[in-house]
Amino acid sequence: MPPSLPTLRKHRTGRGRSVARSAVLVTTLLLLFAVGGSSHSAPGPAGLDAPVRATWTSVPLRDWARRVSEITGATVIVDRRLDPDVSVTLASDGDTLRALLDRVAASAGAAVEPLASTTRLIPRELAGRAAAAEAARDRSLRQLPAEIRRIAERQAAWHWPAAARPRDLVAAAADDAGITIAGLDRVPHDHLPATSLPPLQLAERLDLMLANFDLRIDWSPAGGTIVPIDAGVDPRDRTAVRQVPGRPRPPRQKQKPAGIEVYSLRLEAPLNQAVSAVAKSLGLEVSLDEASLAARGIAPGEIVRVDARDLSRDDLLDAIVAPLDLAWTVENGTLRVFAAPARPAVHSADPP
Fold first, then answer.
1. Is 85 exposed, middle or buried (0-12, 13-18, 19+ CB in 10 A)?
2. Each residue of 124-172: pLDDT tens digit?
């Protein structure tokens, strides 16, 4: 018997009062709809809005990142090119992790780069590169056979001791997954500090490691090849919806006037099931344009993940479809989700 799960909840803003309307979603798939509560257990950027109450005095940057990760449940990683011993002295009485990261980054001459499941502190001049590489990786994986995608998306924790060599770690991860990764000679001989990562997809783990050396994995049906981090990346991905380094970050959402309906949602499910369930809760019919998805190599069963709070209906729908680079419209009571035509490739002229 399928479980009766928590719901997508709509509520109205205004003077401390809220009115909740629930529509129970019943499905055999994993649809997790969280209504309020702490987001500390959510990994990566979803945890950036977690309130933090703590004080640190003269704590080295790398130790601070580890401690704040433990407090919030987010995963904060310090790029190896930053000084790990920069002293952090900071007090927070409910500030969000996002705000604290901005303050620490400013004092360390760094930038904050949120990725799908982690957040990196990086040199300012490198801002956007790993995020753009992540977008390119997601697009390329969608074009690959299901078997190699399952391998790339398989989740596991990753731990290594102090002085571990990155080349050895990548090779061991590939062996464990039963795949071949070419280009290991691109990874420099180096030694890393002891690190523990929470369960992440194999593709994420490898790229997190390699981003320290401006490298990434280019996936293919045969496995992967280590390439420069910018290889095959659309330059527009570096600036699309990315924070400009060194500038104050605006609030995640504008203050909504009283009476506006907002929604909170935590979801991990195939696209077709997620869209249908959310549309039903919004009182809409659904039309998923599978032909346009197929033309872009996107399967209706592609997994989507959302962890968001207090969004308008439009922002909520954006949060569901944007990671797959899809679009949506609502007309005559029907939610249509489709893949817009692919953007033309960007070509740069050869230097004179």
1. exposed
2. 999 889 989 998 998 889 889 999 999 999 999 999 999 999 999 999 9
Q: CATH code at 265?
A: 3.55.50
Residues 139, 102 share a domain: no
Instruction: Based on the fold, state whether residues 122 and 138 are members of the same structural domain.
Output: no
Could you tell me whether strands 76-78 and 119-123 are parallel, antiparallel, or unpaired per DSSP bridges?
parallel
Domain of residue 22, residue span: 9-30+260-338
3 inside domain = no
Q: Quick one: CA torsion of 318, 245, 135, 227, rounded to 10 degrees?
A: 180
Encoded tokens for 38: 């702490």
3-state secondary structure of 227: strand
pTM score: 0.57
Among 206, 239, 272, give the residue marking a domain's end: 239
Judge contact between 337 and 289, C-beta under 8 A. Answer: yes
Helix residue spans in the chain (DSSP H): 61-72, 97-108, 129-142, 146-152, 166-177, 202-211, 271-281, 290-295, 313-321
CATH number where 232 lies: 3.55.50.30
Nearest to 287 by CA among 328, 341, 231: 328
Tell me what the pLDDT averaged over the chain comes to: 78
Tokens of 334: 């029907």
Q: What's the burial of 273, exposed, middle or buried (CB within 10 Å: 0-12/13-18/19+)?
A: buried
- Residue 86 neighbours by CB under 8 Å, 6+ apart: 60, 61, 107, 108
Which among 6, 5, 8 has a CA at the least distance from the CA of 262? 8
Residue 170: DSSP 8-state: H
When divided into structural domains, the chain yields a total of 3
What are the CA-CA distances from residue 35 to residues 7, 23, 121, 310 (Å)? Answer: 7, 12, 30, 10
Q: Are residues 119 and 132 in the same domain?
A: no
- Virtual torsion, Cα 114, 141, 314, 343, nearest 10 deg: 100
Residues of the chain under the 50 pLDDT cut:
1-7, 13-44, 46, 239-259, 343-352
Identify whether 346 is part of a domain: no
